[in-house]
Write a sequence for this structure.
């Protein structure tokens, strides 16, 4: 697979861990070392321990919100990658930046930041293959 | 100077260009190539042209807002650097991420994202050296 395919897969794995509230998977996705995370409305969290503790709290929410990532753009510079995407969460849109670093054969997350987009961004609605007219 | 000192100087130069509305300086600060920018409330801008156009608009505001960066944290991996800081803007606090890449002897910006911090963050207030009691 190309780097870009691998990076998009790592990005998708992050959101899958989120929506399935899979803390062990989320823990594997984050790198060791220089990691940082800015959840919407939060100050920056720095270091693996603080970040994983925040996800432990967020993923323990009994009514988790659905997160749907769209419009991914990948940039790669050697062993460092950046993914920009739009997160649709309960009808609102957030602009997200996810950084990854290559660790062996894997791409692991080193930074996440998501911030609400003020302007109206329409969530794509799946089109029905047919519809009945009354 | 150490890398960290140089990176902090590049970060400070970014905010100085902002508060002095110095578009040529802002233009020099941004790298070529893979660049992205997420202003508060904006969707992601990708590419040098779109980013510089946004700064041209923002810096042409006749009533610019004061931006005061604090609490800088620097992370360096080879020729790539990340600065996390808190921006105080007109009494509100934003969590900012600034990425830089080494280009020759300089560190040039490759990404900026700032997002409002919902929780109260107090802006440090300079203490008067003396005050008169009535």
């Amino acid at each position: 697979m190309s780097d870009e395919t691998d990076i998009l897969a790592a990005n998708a794995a992050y959101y899958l861990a989120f929506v399935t509230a899979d803390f062990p998977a989320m823990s594997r996705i984050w790198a060791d070392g220089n990691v940082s995370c800015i959840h919407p409305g939060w100050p920056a969290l720095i270091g693996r321990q603080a970040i994983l503790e925040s996800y432990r709290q967020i993923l323990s929410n009994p009514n988790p919100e659905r997160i749907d990532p769209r419009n991914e753009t990948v940039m790669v510079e050697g062993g460092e990658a950046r993914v920009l995407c739009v997160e649709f969460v309960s009808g609102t849109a957030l602009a997200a930046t996810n950084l990854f670093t290559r660790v062996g054969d894997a791409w692991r997350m080193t930074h996440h930041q998501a911030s609400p987009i003020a302007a109206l961004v329409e969530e794509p609605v799946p089109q029905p293959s047919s519809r009945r007219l009354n």
